[in-house]
TrEMBL record:
Keywords: Aromatic hydrocarbons catabolism, Hydrolase, Signal. One of its GO terms (biological process) is epoxide metabolic process. InterPro entries: AB_hydrolase_fold, Epox_hydrolase-like, Epoxide_hydro_N, Epoxide_hydrolase, TAT_signal. The lineage of its organism: Bacteria, Pseudomonadati, Pseudomonadota, Betaproteobacteria, Burkholderiales. Transmembrane segments: none annotated. Belongs to the peptidase S33 family. Residues 1-34 form the signal peptide. The active site is at D228, Y376, H428. This is Epoxide hydrolase. GO terms for molecular function: epoxide hydrolase activity. Coiled coil: none annotated.
Amino acid sequence: MTDIPFPQSPSRRRFVGVAAATVAAGTLSQLAFADTKQAITEVASAAGGDKTAIRPLRVHVPESQLIDLRRRIKATRWPDRETVTDDSQGVPLAMMQEVARHWSTDYDWRKCEAKLNALPNFVTEIDGLDIHFIHVRSKHENAMPLIVTHGWPGSIIEQFKIIGPLTNPTAYGASASDAFHLVIPSLPGYGFSGKPTETGWGPERTARAWVVLMKRLGYEKFAAQGGDLGGVVANVMAKQAPPELLGIHVNFPATIPPEIVKALQDGDPPPSGLSDDEKHAYEQLSSAAKKRRAYIAEQSTRPQTLYGLADSPIGLASWMLDHGDGYIQPAAALTSAVYGRDVNGESSGAMTRDDVLDDITLYWLTNTGVSAARFYWESHLNFTAAADVSVPAAVSVFPRENYQAPRSWTERAYHNLIYYNRLDKGGHFAAWEQPQLFAEEVRAGLRSLRT
């Protein structure tokens, strides 16, 4: 005999329904957000509690955080499609929906985690802040110590593909005499480095911290390399001119003469008397100032407002992918990598879609979207204005960089220019896009500093 349930009143049905929904929501909430605050790294204890000790670091992200990431991606509330057929209104909806599809279904963070843990990762406290770094010593004698600094929206992941060519050049067709001991730190507020809780952690303080780091590792003399913000830090190191610094190599040089800076700020046409290279650089810089710097303006003035970078993976990804010039530079390589094909003839080189997602996922898991943005707020200098340094400097000019620094400007900005070369391929993310060519440039640029 089948049991016949007693009929329920509407009020009882509502109560039961609300109660069931409440229980279910609570259960789902616990599952969705379980352990998302749990540590994603393991750091060895310092002997005697000395935080300035060099402490090994290992990465292991709890599975609950990866589940939460995929849940958030799939729950994205999308805006309407842009009303144009290009990227002039920002990152296209179709592109971000493809990012979301791949990120939430096919992407595997554990592969990146394995790459990270295959490298020697460490943490040490400098000036009250934990600084994370990768330290790979070369097997070759007389290798030159070199500290390489990433930029934004990059990270240490930008440098993965240059570690082998620079530390073990003989495996890549180069000479043992070109080997480097490599130190790759995470900028303050980025990746596994600490997030500053006070103001003052800009390029100048970071440059001084890098000197402390290299000396703490036992390097009495060393060189520095950087692109993007890493180039800014390298230039500041050269300006500070510590006695330990042999020289620098930059692929994002600061060369713009004062009179050109003023003309750009005033929105003037190119001054008369410029060479063809100088006029081309002026036009590139003028276009960049007008169309490609919205993110810099926000991060330089109102970084705390960017709450979406901490709350929405797609919000974070779209912000990091948008440089206002998705099919040109510096975002062209990122765009082509995300699509998995050349876009408008722009190649991603060696950069893959998963390389880009490794980088974005690192920002997400470490919740460093806003703390990284603050580095711009802490930077009180024009990134491309003439560096005015006398430390030996090498400059590589990649053809798809923000602007191609003319040799004439470069010689005025770097008073002891030991190397200048214009390449025929590669762009803003040169270490990612063209790791072999990038490594060759670093070797050639710093070769004269070896004893």
